[in-house]
Amino acid sequence: MPLVSGHDVIQHCTARGLVAGAFNTTNIETTMGIIDAVEKVGVPTFIQVAPTNVKLSGYEYVYDMVARRLADTTVPVALHLDHGKSLAAVEAALAADFTSIMIDASEEPLAENTAISATARRMCGASIALEAELGSIGGKEDDVAPEFASTTDPAQVSDFAAAVGCDMLAVSVGNVHGYAPNARIDFDLLERVRAASSVPLVIHGGSGLPEEQLGRLADFGVVKVNVASDLRNAMIRSFGEAYAANPNENSLIRVSLDAVAAISEVVERRIRMLNPSL
Ligand code: 13P
Fold it and tell me: Cα of 176 to ligand 1 centre, how many Å?
C-alpha cells in the first residue's frame, strides 16, 4: 500500500483505541525490521527519521526506501520527519514527499516556538499532519541533547495548540530520550496536560520507559510513542554478537538479515506493550 498521511494513522488508531508506535529508521535493515513487524501485528504506524539520521542517505532516499518496502503491505504507514529543528528541515522533508512532519522549536521561548510552529503549519497545508513540541524533552536523541530540558506547562497547552493548529503535540512529562534509567511518566502531569486540550499527544523517549507505563498511555490521549534507541541497539548488538561469535564471518547478508530479525522482534514487542489489548 502507498504511504498514507499522518492524519490517516491518527484516525485509524483513534478509532480502534490504539497507540501508534513511531519507529526511527536509518537504513534498509531498520526499515525492513519495522515493516516486517508492523505487517505481522497490523497496527498503523509512523516510520520516522530525524535530520541527524539523513546524513547517511538523504530525505529522497529514505522516502524511496520506505515507500518501496511498503508496496506489498496492507497496514497504513506514514513517513514522518522527527525533530525538524528548522523550517529548512521541514521544507526538505516536504520536498521529498514525507507525509507527516514534526517541527521542534521547543527550546525557543513560547512566542517564538508558537510563531515557528505556525509557519510549519502553513508549509504543511491541510493534507500533511503536523506535530509540534511544548516543553523540551531531555536526554540524547542520537548525539544531540537540548541545552536545557523543561516540562510541559498545562496552562500553555490549549493556547499553543490552537495558535499553531497542530495535529499532535509532543509533551515533556518525565519522558527522556535514550536510555535514562530513571525516566518515568508523571501521570498526574500528563492528566493535567490532557485535560487542557483535546489535541492528540505524543510521547518521545519510548525506549527507556517501563512496560507498565507504556500500556497506560492510550488512556491519557496519547496517540503516538517514539522509539529509536531500542532499534539502534538491537542492530548494533546483533552485528556485535556475530563478530564476537566469529571474527572471520564474511557473510554480510546473513549478518544483516539476522539484524533485521532482531529489530523486528523489538518493534513487535514495543507495539504490543503500547497496546496490551492486542
Ligand atoms: P528513544 O531513543 O528513547 O526511544 O527516543 C526516541 C525518540 O523519542 C525519537 O524522537
Answer: 8
- Which residues line ligand 1 at a C-beta cut-off of 6 Å? 24, 82-83, 141, 177-178, 204-208, 226-230
- Model pTM? 0.96
Active-site residue list:
82
CB 78 within 8 Å of CB 9: yes
Domain-by-domain residue ranges, the chain? 6-274
Note the maximum CA span of the chain. Answer: 60
Residue range 6-274 forms a domain whose CATH class is alpha beta
For the four alpha carbons of 203, 207, 209 and 210, in that order, the dihedral sign comes to positive
Q: How do residues 118-147 score in pLDDT, each as one tens digit?
A: 999 999 999 999 999 999 888 877 767 777
